[in-house]
Structures are given as structure tokens and as C-alpha cells.
Amino acid sequence: xxxxxxxGGFFGCSLALALRARGERVTLLEREANLMxxxxxxxxxxxxxxxxxxxxxxxxxRSRLNYPRFVAEFGGPSxxxxxxxxxxxxxxxxxxxxxxxxxxxxxxxxxxxxDGVSCTPGDISPQPSSGCLRAGRERLLAxxxxxxxxxxxxxxxxxxxxxxxxxxxxxRAGDPPTVVFIPREVTGEVNASGAVDQLVTTNPDGxxxxxxxxxxxxxxxxVTPAPLxxxxxx
Length: 234
Ligand SMILES: Cc1cc2nc3c(=O)[nH]c(=O)nc-3n(C[C@H](O)[C@H](O)[C@H](O)COP(=O)(O)OP(=O)(O)OC[C@H]3O[C@@H](n4cnc5c(N)ncnc54)[C@H](O)[C@@H]3O)c2cc1C
Description:
CATH superfamily of the largest domain: Golgi alpha-mannosidase II
Order of helices and strands: EHEHHHEEHEEEEEE
Low-confidence stretches: none
Number of helices: 5
CATH topology of the largest domain: Immunoglobulin-like
Bound molecules: flavin-adenine dinucleotide
Structural class: alpha+beta
């Protein structure tokens, strides 16, 4: 199906991209010479939590309900990582799902993975990136996690503060192995206990892969606490 979207502001561009992602042919019509030059260029870049709208309870409620969805889709500033990103990662463990971390354009406001260069206080326009990972984000996102397992009910927890990891799983002899990924930054010792044969291999980038074949029964895989090898920005 072909679609036409009138207006190349935030909403028109978002709609056109969403339609395009569904495989539709889209024509975006904008009367100005460039996209994103009207209201979308002038706003104050606040992500509203809903409390800003005393005149409209409905607008406030919509803002409140859509805030988590916005953060999940577009990410958030690194200043909220200890709350928003940390809890998002805990939910990921709880529900045994992954998520895509949005690599936002550097804007000197802390939204990106990297530090910006030439940051002027108050200037949130896109800036060239230094290419240097924000240490706090690297610390949170360089996680130990199971890549595959025959046990759909396994449970695990990674502690970004200490680098410790533990996973509990059940397996029958002959089941496919449970595979755990350990990023380069996590340096603790890998151990297994219970009904399992363990193989640990190191990849060229320093990350490790744990391949544990069940021999029948419960087993666990742990990584001991150890300082994380996070390269600080200079
Ligand atoms: C000063 C200010 C501060 C704001 N601060 C915030 C904030 O902090 N947080 C927040 O969430 N929101 C804020 N907003 C609101 C937010 O910016 C708007 O809700 C949002 O940008 C609207 O996006 P839009 O795509 O609907 O409109 P626009 O960005 O205005 O895009 C509409 C586009 O349609 C084009 N167009 C119109 N008619 C035609 C036509 N006939 N043919 C072709 N093209 C046409 C226009 O040229 C324009 O480019 C602020 C708004 C302003 C003005």
C-alpha cells in the first residue's frame, strides 16, 4: 500500500518511518525547505511526566502512561540510569527477554553511549561524539546473560555493581547446552556446580563463552565478584 504523510515535523516523520518499517511506500510532504523546522525545532526537549498539565487531566494522564514507552523506545538521559535503566535491566532478567538500547545522537545532554566534544552548557543540539564510552553506561550494559538454554524456566541475576552473576537451571542428560555470555569488562572467575559439564572459551575480544552441558538434574553457573574492566573516558 502507498501512503502520503503531510507535515515533516516530529509526528509526520515518526509516522512516515513507522509506515516505512512496515514495508509501505511513503511520500512525506513538507512545505518548508527542510524537515523538523517548525514546532519540532523550537521545543524545550522536555519529556513530560504528566504533571505539567493542570488544565487537561487527559493530556497529563496520557503523558504519564506513555512516559515508560517513550523511554523504552528512545532511551533516556544517563542521569536517570541508576533508576530507569537499572530497573529496565531488572525487568529484562525477570521476564528473560532482551531489549535494544537506543544509541541516541550525542547531544551533550547524556543521552548517548559516548561523551560529546565541545559541549557548551545548555546547548542540547547534536554534537560530534568523542567515541569514548560513558563509563556508567558501559558498567550497566556490559552484562553477563544466558544466550540459550533448554530450560525455559531458568532464573539468573547479574549485579553490575560487583560483576557477580548467578544462574540456576535444570537439565536432562542430552539436552542442548546452556550458553552464557560474559563480556570483556566482567573479569570474575566462572564456576559451575551440580549436574553439568562445563567448557569456557575466550573470544579474541576478551569476552568469554560458557557452554554447560547438563548431565541430568539441577545445576548453577556463577561468576565471582571482581572489579569491572571499564575503560574510563579521558
Ligand atoms: C516553544 C515550544 C516549546 C515546546 N516544548 C515542548 C517540550 O518541552 N516537550 C514536548 O513534548 N513538547 C514541547 N512542545 C510541543 C512539541 O514541540 C510539538 O507538540 C511537536 O513538535 C509537534 O510536532 P508536529 O510534527 O505535530 O508539528 P511541527 O513540528 O510543527 O510539524 C508540522 C509540519 O507540517 C508542515 N505543514 C503544515 N501544513 C502543511 C501543508 N499544508 N503541506 C505541507 N506541510 C505542511 C509544517 O511546515 C511543519 O514542518 C513545544 C512547542 C513549542 C512551540
